[in-house]
Specification:
415 residues; alpha/beta; Aspartate Aminotransferase, domain 1; 2 domains
């Protein structure tokens, strides 16, 4: 595949072949060289268990892991006195850890709420939560701009919503109003930030939900999950997923949780040996993201706009909430149908009379790597809106204007 050939793209992605155009960052982003180097340094220079050893390598690991915890909070401008950070496998794992151990009776929760455009992670975990606790589950609709109507959320609700959609990238525009309203009504709110952490993290800054779950591998870091949890929210967690790394002492029938020490609350969700190298490399990814020059961010925005303009010229845009009947009326406007109302780094579309999976294979022949299907949002894309299988282009900082020109050139052959 020529993965290690040099190219004239950004230096941190110099290992890429110039012919490879990666457009699947919504699944997992590419890793810049500083992140790869940080992971390699762990394995080559101080490979060790964190929080268990007294030798030098272990102290280095502990220092760097603790630094990453602080970087995550600083990245979203959240206060250490209010929140802590635990690491998991991914967003799905984090959401399930929270919901499977949340004491609904103690919290006096009457509803669990999610939205129709959610990834299967919150969609399925809220189904399980409702069945387990015998409470009502309500699926609310998102507005075309990604916001939610506050009146749709009953009081005493546990709310689980994404900060950014993995279909069209639209964000939860009124996130602060929603958080405030949920809390004032005696409820709790968990944010799925998987798609927001890399390119839309501003929407999460200084917000105060009860928990934020994210996937490091969608923000230019290794495969890893993270949870940012309010310290007072832990009182509603009935720990049942437990093992080594979470206890300070164990007797025949009893044990002492490390999280009983308020300085070690993060152990509440970290059973067993953690992915120390990946955690450290996440810290490197955050450092890199925080230092991206404005001109690089501008290139990404221009690439998004260029693609959006192409779809607007050769078809229809804003089909995310159009019914099948409404979409049929738009067939005369062009073959391309973009779900997005506005340009984002994540764009999903379909083409009249052309199977998206076949189109994905054809693009792959030209080195263009895109995702096809329903993107783990089966309820909304398939069963509610009846879209045909889609194709998704999710851009990143590795993409150059020349690459986007080539994508448009290939798509123009269809137009």
């Amino acid at each position: 595949m020529g993965l290690f050939k040099k190219t004239e793209t950004e230096d941190v992605f110099s290992y890429l072949d110039e012919k490879d155009i990666y457009l699947d960052g919504a699944c997992q982003s590419l890793r810049p060289e500083p992140v790869i180097n940080a992971l390699e340094a762990y394995y080559k220079e101080f490979n060790s268990c964190g929080e268990r050893v007294k030798y030098k390598w272990g102290r280095i690991t502990d220092e760097k892991v603790n630094a990453t915890r602080e970087k995550v909070l600083d990245y979203l401008k959240l206060k250490k006195k209010d929140y802590f950070v635990s690491f998991t496998l991914n967003t799905t794992y984090g959401l399930n850890l929270l919901l499977s151990q949340f004491d609904a009776k103690k919290a006096k929760i009457k509803y669990v709420i999610t939205s129709d455009i959610e990834h299967n992670s919150p969609f399925l975990s809220t189904i399980t939560f409702a069945k387990k606790h015998g409470i009502k589950r309500k699926v609310i609709s998102r507005n075309s701009d990604g916001s939610v109507k506050i009146k749709d959320i009953p009081s005493k609700s546990l709310v689980v919503l994404n900060a950014a959609s993995n279909i069209d990238g639209r964000t939860l525009k009124n996130i602060n109003e929603i958080i405030k309203a949920v809390k004032q009504s005696g409820g709790y709110i968990i944010i799925d930030a998987a798609q927001a952490m890399a390119h839309s993290k501003e929407i999460l800054e200084k917000t105060e939900p009860d928990a934020i779950c994210f996937s490091a591998h969608k923000m230019y870091a290794p495969s890893l999950g993270g949870m940012i949890v309010r310290k007072d929210f832990v009182d509603l967690i009935d720990t049942s997923f437990i093992g080594g790394g979470m206890v300070d002492d164990v007797d025949l029938e009893t044990y002492l949780l490390s999280s009983d020490n308020k300085d070690h609350l993060y152990t509440k969700f970290e059973s067993g040996l953690q992915a120390w190298g990946e955690i450290i490399a996440l810290g490197a990814a955050i450092d890199w993201l925080e230092k991206i020059p404005k001109d690089k961010k501008k290139i990404l925005q221009e690439n998004e706009q260029k693609l959006f303009d192409f779809f607007k010229e050769h078809g229809t845009v804003g089909e995310i909430d159009k019914t099948k009947e409404q979409r049929e009326k738009n067939r005369t406007n062009g073959r391309f149908h973009l779900l997005n109302y506005e340009p984002t780094s994540t764009m999903s579309f379909y083409v009249d009379d052309l199977d998206s999976h076949l189109l994905g294979e054809a693009l792959a022949e030209d080195g263009i790597m895109a995702r096809t299907g329903y993107f783990c949002v089966h309820y909304y894309t398939d069963h509610k809106m009846h879209f045909p299988p889609l194709i998704r282009l999710s851009l990143g900082y590795q993409n150059t204007p020349e690459q986007i020109d080539k994508v448009i050139s290939e798509l123009s052959k269809i137009a």
